[in-house]
Design a protein that fits this description.
The complex is a heterotrimer of chains A (about 350), B (about 500) and C (about 170). By secondary structure, chain A is of the alpha/beta class. Chain A has 2 domains: about 5-135 and about 260-330, Bordetella uptake gene, domain 1 (D-Maltodextrin-Binding Protein, domain 2, 3-Layer(aba) Sandwich), CATH 3.40.190.150; about 135-260, Periplasmic binding protein-like II (D-Maltodextrin-Binding Protein, domain 2), CATH 3.40.190.10. Chain A has helices at about 10-20, 25-30, 55-70, 85-95, 110-115, 150-160, 175-185, 195-205, 245-250, 270-275, 275-290, 295-300, 315-330, 330-335; strands spanning about 45-50, 75-80, 100-105, 125-135, 135-145, 165, 190-195, 210-215, 225-230, 245, 260, 265-270, 310. In chain A, the strands form 2 sheets. In chain A, strands 5, 6, 7, 8, 9, 10 and 11 form a 7-stranded mixed β-sheet that branches. In chain A, strands 2-1-3-12-4-13 form a 6-stranded mixed β-sheet, sandwiched between helices. Residues about 1-35 of chain A have low confidence and may be disordered. Chain B has helices at about 5-15, 20-35, 40-45, 50-55, 55-75, 75-80, 95-100, 105-135, 135-140, 145-155, 155-160, 165-180, 205-220, 230-240, 240-255, 255-270, 275-290, 300-325, 330-345, 350-355, 355-360, 360-380, 380-385, 395-410, 415-435, 440-460, 475-505. Chain B is built from 27 helices and no strands. Chain B has one domain (about 5-505). The longest helix of chain B is centred in the C-terminal third of the chain and has 34 residues, at about 475-505. Chain B is globular, with a radius of gyration of 22 Å. Chain C has about 170 residues and is an all-alpha fold. Chain C folds into 2 domains: about 5-80, no CATH class; about 85-170, no CATH class. Chain C has 7 helices and 2 strands. Chain C has a two-stranded parallel sheet. In chain C, helix 2 packs antiparallel against helix 3 (about 40-70) and helix 5 crosses helix 6. Chain C is flat, with a radius of gyration of 24 Å. The model of chain C is unreliable at about 1-5 (pLDDT under 50). Chains in contact: A-B, A-C, B-C. At the B-C interface, helix 12, helix 13, helix 24, helix 25 and helix 26 of B face helix 2, helix 3, helix 4, helix 5 and helix 6 of C.
Chain lengths: ~350, ~500, ~170
C-alpha cells in the first residue's frame, strides 16, 4: 500500500471521491478546460468495491501508477466497500456515466460468485472485465501446530470424521476448491464461513476449525501456517511453499484454476459500444503496463509476490468468469443453503 | 520468546527515547478518539503516507501510542456530553454522564483517566510477562465460549431495566432485533434491510451510537440552559484542583476494582475479533453484579465508571497478543499495524522476539510508556475540559448534531449513514422521553450481531446441534458463572431486605 | 386546583410509551416476513428474539389497557412532547437537521455546517446575539473544515467552498 506519487495521493483523489457522492461530478468539471479532443482528456475514475487499504487498493495503485504514464491521465479511485462488493457494483452500474472515463476494479472470482447466490439488479452482461492484473490461486492450509501435516492427512482424516474448514465466505473460489476436493475424494468437509481472511487465519490458528481455504498470498510468509495444496496448474512460488501439492495433479482432477484473487478492470458494455475508440485506447495502453519494468518495481514495492502478477485480456477474463460461474452454479444449493450437502 | 530483564530494561529506555513521537501521538489520539467516527485504525490509514515514511520502529511507536491514547480519548465526550467516541466507550456514559450532570465532570474525567491508565499499564505489563500463557486463551475461547461471554454483556440489559423491567427488556430486545438487520454470516441472505444495500452488512455502529446517544441528547438538552442539573451548576462554580485530587483518590482507593476489571478486558482482548465494547459491557455487568450497592449504578456511581474504562484499556494490550504470537491481528488497528510493518519487510509473528526484539517487545513497552506519559499530560486537562459542560445548550445542541453527523459519515463515507444517525436520533429521543433506556437499545445493537455470529458459527460447526452451547468444559464453567452473577444481585438485595426488616424489629 | 385538573394530573399520559413497542412490533413482523424463505440458521436468532419481543410488547399493551381501565393513565402523549413550549424549536431543529443531510452533498461540508449552525443557534437562542452566532458558526465551520477536510482528508462532499480553497492552494 503506497502513495506512489503526488498525482495519486489522497489529496489527488479527494476530488474524485467527492464526485462519488454526487458533488464532485458537478464541481470538478468546470475547472477542467476541455482543450484536447483526444481520449483521455481528463482523469479516469475507478470504482473499487472493497475497502481502502485492501488487496485491490494495493494492486490498483501499483498498476495505475504505471498505466497513467502510458495513457497520459490520472486515475482517481473511489472505494465502495460493503455487501461483499455489491455496493460497489450497484453504484458503478447504477450511477457511473457510460463514457469510458469510469471504470471498475474488482476481484472477479469472489465477486461474480455473488451473482450466482443472488443476481444483481442490473443484467450480468451489461459490464465486463477487460484487463486482469493478478492471479492469486486458492489454497488449502493448516496450522503448523495441527496434526494434519499434508493434504493426504487432511483427506484421510476427512474420511474418518467431518472436518471443519475455515473459509472467508462460502461463495469464494477457494471454498469451491475445498468442496470439489471433498466430492472427488469422499472426504467430509464442513465449510465454516468466518467472515474474512483475518478471522479465517485466527480460526485455523486457534484450532476452532481443522484447516482453512484462502487465497495463497494471504498465507505466504506467515510462519504459523503451512500451505498444503494449491488450486492451480503450477506452483508459481516453489521456494516459498515447497510442500504445496497441486490438487488437480495429486488427485487426478481437472478443476479450472480456482484463482481466488483475480483483480481486473471492468467497464460497462454500453460505454464500449458508444466509444469503441476510447475503449481501444484503454486496452492498448493497459497492455503496455505489464511489460514496463517500472511496473515490476512498483509491485515489488508493495511486497506482494510478483509471480502472481500477470496480464489477462478481455478474452482471458471472460473465460475465467465463465469457469468460476460454472463451478459456482454446481454448488449453488450448497452456497445458498437451500439444500444440505456435506 | 525468551524473557530477560536486560532486554526488557533496554527496551524501556529505548522507548522513552521516542518521547518526541509519543507525545504528539497522544495528543492526536485523544482528539481522534474523542470524535465519533474516527478511530486509531482509520487515522492510521488516513496518515499512511506519513506512517510509511517513518522507519518501522518509529512508525510502530506512533501507531501504538495513537491506539492507546485514542481509547482514552473516547471516554472524554462519553463523560462530558453523553457521546461515546467509539463503541468501546459505549458503557462509559452510564455512570460518567450522570456524574457530569451533577457537576462532577472534572472528577469523572479524572477517574476515567486514572483507571484507564492504571488498567492499561497493568495489563500491558501482564501481557508482556505472560504472553505465552495469555496467547493460549484464544485456543480455549471459541464460538461456544464466546456465546456465553456475549450473554454476560447482554444480561446488562436486564440490570439496566431494573426500574421498569418490561420496558427495559423491550428496549434491549428491540436493539437485538435491529442488530440482526443485515446478511447472515453463513449464507449471506439479506434480512430486514428494507431494501437498502447499505444495511446489507448490518447496521453500522457509529451512526447507531451517535444517533441514540448524541443526536437524541441534543434534541433533549435544549429544554435546559445547560446540561448540568441545578445542583450541578452550583457545584461547577467551585472549580479548582480539588475535584482532580478527589477523583485520583477515589480511583486509587478502588485499585482492586481497576485491577480485576482490567483483567476482564485483557482476556477478552486476546480473543481475536472480540473487542472493547464487549469487554466494557461485561466488566460493567460484573462490577454491578458483585457490588454491594447495585442500585446506585447508572446514577453516577464511581465503580460504574471505573469498570468500563479500565476494561476497554485492558483490551488494547490484549489485541496485540494474537498479532505477535500467531501473526494474526486480533482487531482492526492491529491489522493496520501489520500492514505497515509488512510494507517495511517486517513480517509480524513470534520470530520477531528473536530477530527484532525492538519490534517484538516494542508495542508493549511503547504502550506502557504511552500510559505513563499520558497520565501526566492529560490529568491536568480534566479541569479545563470539564468546563465544556457550562456551554449553553442553545450552542451545544447544534454543534453536537453537526459534528456527530460528520462522525456518522466518516467510517464508510456514505451520506446514507447520516440519515441513519438521524433515524436513530429520533428513536433515541422517543425512547428517552417515554422511559426506555437508550443504552439498553445500544447494547442490543452492538452485541446482538456478535452473539448471532458466534451462535451461527457454533451451530455450523456442530452441524445443527443446539446442545453445542453446552459442549465445552470452559463454556459450561462460564455458564455457571453467568447464572451465579445473575443471581448474586438478587441474593444481595434479598439479604439486605431481610436485614432491614430485622433492624426495626430490634429497635 | 379544580377537580378536573386534579383528575387530569392524576392520570399519567402514557400514550408516548406505546410508540417504541408499536415500532418494535411492526419492525419485528416486517423482519420475520423477510426471513420466511431463508435457511433455518439465518432465521433462528431473529425468530427467537422477535417472538419474545412481540410478546413483551403485547404484555405492555395489556398492562396499559388494564391501567387505562382502572383510570390511572391516559393515552395522551404529553410525556413525549412536554414541555410543550419547546415543541416548535425542536421541530425546527429536526427540520434543519434533515435539511443539513439533504443539502450537504451539494453545498459541501463547510458551507452547510455554517448555515446549519447559524440557523439552529439563532432559532434556539430566540434570534438574540446574531453577530456572535454568525462568528461562532463561521469559526466552527472553518475549524471543522481544517480538521476534517484538510487535516484528516475525509472524503466529505465537496462544495463551492472546498473547491475554491482547493483551487487557491
Amino acid at each position: 500500500m503506497d502513495r506512489f506519487d503526488d498525482d495519486f495521493s489522497r489529496r489527488g483523489f479527494l476530488k474524485g471521491s467527492g464526485a462519488a457522492l454526487g458533488a464532485g461530478a458537478l464541481a470538478t468539471l468546470p475547472f477542467q478546460v476541455a482543450m484536447a479532443a483526444a481520449f483521455p482528456e481528463r482523469n479516469i475514475k475507478v470504482y473499487v468495491p472493497t475497502r481502502e487499504g485492501g488487496g485491490a487498493d494495493r494492486n490498483l495503485r501499483a498498476f495505475a501508477s504505471i498505466w497513467k504514464n502510458h495513457i497520459k491521465t490520472n486515475f482517481e479511485p473511489a472505494f465502495y466497500p460493503g455487501a461483499a462488493g455489491r455496493v460497489g457494483y450497484e453504484t458503478f452500474m447504477g450511477k457511473a456515466p457510460r463514457d469510458c472515463y469510469h471504470l471498475l476494479f474488482g476481484n472477479m472470482g469472489a465477486e461474480v460468485l455473488n451473482w450466482v447466490v443472488k443476481p444483481p439488479t442490473f443484467p450480468i452482461d451489461s459490464y465486463f472485465y477487460f484487463a486482469q492484473v493478478d492471479a492469486d490461486p486458492g489454497c488449502l492450509f493448516v496450522s503448523t501446530k495441527s496434526k494434519l501435516k499434508n493434504v493426504d492427512d487432511v483427506v484421510a482424516e476427512g474420511k474418518k470424521r467431518t472436518l471443519n474448514v475455515g473459509v472467508s465466505r462460502l461463495a469464494h473460489p477457494a471454498s469451491l476448491g475445498a468442496l470439489a476436493l471433498a466430492d472427488k475424494t469422499g472426504a467430509k468437509f464442513n465449510l465454516i464461513p468466518l467472515s474474512g481472511g483475518r478471522n479465517t487465519l485466527s480460526g485455523v490458528a486457534t484450532g476452532e476449525v481443522d484447516f482453512g481455504a484462502l487465497p495463497t498470498s494471504s498465507i505466504v510468509g506467515r510462519s504459523a501456517f503451512k500451505i498444503v495444496a494449491l488450486f492451480d496448474d503450477k506452483n508459481a512460488l516453489p521456494d516459498k511453499i515447497p510442500d504445496a501439492v497441486l490438487v488437480n495433479k495429486h488427485f487426478n482432477m481437472n478443476l479450472p484454476p480456482l484463482v481466488a484473487g483475480a483483480r481486473a478492470f471492468g467497464i460497462q458494455t454500453e460505454a464500449v459500444e458508444k466509444y469503441p475508440d476510447r475503449y481501444k485506447t484503454l486496452v492498448s495502453t493497459a497492455e503496455k503496463v505489464y511489460g514496463d519494468p517500472a511496473y515490476k518495481a512498483a509491485v515489488e514495492k508493495t511486497k506482494a509476490p510478483w509471480e502472481y502478477f500477470m496480464y489477462g485480456s478481455a478474452e482471458d477474463c471472460k473465460k475465467y468468469v465463465a469457469s468460476i460461474t460454472e463451478i459456482g452454479q454446481q454448488y449453488k444449493q450448497y452456497l445458498t443453503g437451500k439444500q444440505k450437502k456435506s | 520468546m525468551e524473557f530477560s530483564i536486560e532486554i526488557f530494561a533496554e527496551q524501556f529506555a529505548r522507548t522513552f527515547s521516542y518521547w518526541w513521537v509519543i507525545l504528539p501521538s497522544i495528543l492526536l489520539g485523544l482528539i481522534v478518539g474523542a470524535i465519533p467516527g474516527f478511530s486509531a485504525a482509520n487515522t492510521i490509514i488516513i496518515l499512511l503516507p506519513l506512517t510509511l515514511a517513518m522507519d518501522p520502529e518509529t512508525g510502530l511507536v506512533f501507531m501504538v501510542a495513537l491506539y492507546a491514547s485514542s481509547r482514552l480519548g473516547a471516554g472524554i465526550p462519553a463523560i462530558l456530553v453523553n457521546i461515546p467516541g467509539t463503541a468501546g466507550a459505549a458503557a462509559t456514559p452510564l455512570d460518567g454522564y450522570p456524574m457530569t450532570q451533577q457537576g462532577r465532570g472534572q472528577q469523572a474525567l479524572t477517574i476515567s483517566f486514572t483507571s484507564s491508565v492504571l488498567g492499561g499499564l497493568l495489563t500491558t505489563i501482564i501481557a508482556l510477562l505472560a504472553m505465552p500463557w495469555l496467547s493460549q486463551v484464544a485456543y480455549y475461547l471459541h464460538s461456544v465460549e464466546m456465546i456465553v461471554i456475549m450473554i454476560f454483556g447482554i444480561s446488562l440489559i436486564a440490570s439496566i431495566a431494573a426500574r421498569d423491567t418490561l420496558k427495559g427488556l423491550i428496549a434491549g430486545f428491540l436493539g437485538l432485533m435491529i442488530g440482526y438487520i443485515g446478511a447472515d454470516v453463513i449464507y449471506e441472505t439479506p434480512r430486514g434491510t428494507m431494501g437498502f444495500l447499505e444495511l446489507y452488512d448490518g447496521v453500522p455502529l457509529i451512526p447507531a451510537l451517535v444517533g441514540l446517544f448524541a443526536i437524541s441528547e441534543a434534541f433533549s438538552v435544549i429544554e435546559g440552559d445547560s446540561i448540568l442539573t441545578k445542583l450541578g451548576r452550583e457545584a461547577m462554580q467551585t472549580g479548582g484542583w480539588g475535584a482532580t485530587i478527589e477523583g485520583l483518590r477515589e480511583t486509587l482507593s478502588r485499585w482492586w476494582h481497576v485491577v480485576w476489571t482490567a483483567m476482564i478486558g485483557l482476556v477478552i482482548g486476546v480473543v481475536p475479533g472480540a473487542g472493547a465494547a464487549i469487554a466494557a459491557f461485561v466488566a460493567y455487568q460484573q462490577s454491578r453484579a458483585f457490588s454491594k450497592t447495585p442500585e446506585k449504578y447508572g446514577t453516577g456511581h464511581i465503580e460504574g465508571l471505573i469498570a468500563p474504562e479500565s476494561a476497554n484499556n485492558g483490551v488494547t494490550s490484549g489485541t496485540l497478543i494474537p498479532l505477535l504470537v500467531i501473526g494474526v491481528p486480533g482487531g482492526a488497528t492491529a491489522a493496520i499495524m501489520a500492514v505497515v510493518l509488512q510494507y517495511h519487510g517486517v513480517t509480524v509473528g513470534p520470530e520477531l522476539f528473536a530477530t527484532r526484539p525492538e519490534l517484538g517487545y516494542g508495542p508493549f513497552t511503547t504502550m506502557a510508556v504511552t500510559y505513563i506519559l499520558m497520565i501526566f499530560t492529560i490529568l491536568p486537562l480534566a479541569r479545563y475540559m470539564s468546563r465544556v459542560t457550562v456551554v449553553r445548550t442553545v450552542f451545544m445542541a447544534p454543534i453536537i448534531i453537526s459534528f456527530t453527523l460528520v462522525g456518522a459519515f466518516v467510517p464508510r463515507e456514505y451520506v446514507f449513514d447520516m440519515y441513519l444517525a438521524l433515524v436513530f436520533g429520533v428513536i433515541g429521543y422517543v425512547a428517552r422521553k417515554t422511559g426506555y433506556h437508550v443504552a439498553a437499545i445500544l447494547i442490543g445493537v452492538i452485541l446482538g450481531p456478535l452473539l448471532e455470529q458466534y451462535f451461527l458459527r457454533a451451530m455450523r460447526i456442530s452441524q445443527g446441534d443446539v446442545l453445542v452451547v453446552f459442549s465445552s468444559t470452559i463454556g459450561n464453567i462460564l455458564w455457571v458463572a453467568l447464572v451465579v452473577s445473575l443471581c448474586v444481585p438478587a441474593f444481595t438485595a434479598w439479604r439486605r431486605r431481610a436485614a432491614q426488616e430485622r433492624t426495626p424489629a430490634a429497635q | 386546583m379544580t377537580d378536573s385538573q386534579q383528575e387530569h394530573g392524576r392520570r399519567k399520559p402514557i400514550g408516548g410509551e406505546l410508540i417504541i413497542p408499536a415500532v418494535a412490533v411492526v419492525f419485528s413482523i416486517y423482519y420475520l416476513w423477510t426471513i420466511v424463505d431463508v435457511p433455518f440458521t439465518a432465521q433462528a436468532s431473529a425468530l427467537f428474539v422477535g417472538t419474545i419481543l412481540i410478546f413483551l410488547c403485547l404484555a405492555l399493551f395489556v398492562r396499559t389497557a388494564l391501567a387505562l381501565r382502572r383510570g390511572e393513565v391516559s393515552l395522551g402523549i404529553g410525556g413525549l412532547i412536554e414541555p410543550t413550549s419547546f415543541v416548535p424549536r425542536r421541530l425546527v431543529l429536526l427540520g434543519l437537521t434533515v435539511a443539513y443531510i439533504f443539502v450537504v452533498p451539494w453545498l459541501g461540508f463547510t458551507l452547510t455546517t455554517f448555515l446549519f449552525l447559524a440557523l439552529a443557534m439563532a432559532v434556539l437562542n430566540g434570534g438574540r446575539s446574531k453577530g456572535f452566532i454568525a462568528a461562532l458558526s463561521a469559526v466552527l465551520a472553518i475549524g471543522g473544515w481544517l480538521l476534517f477536510v484538510v487535516a484528516f482528508e475525509t472524503r466529505f462532499p465537496a462544495g463551492p467552498f472546498e473547491m475554491l480553497m482547493q483551487r487557491m492552494f
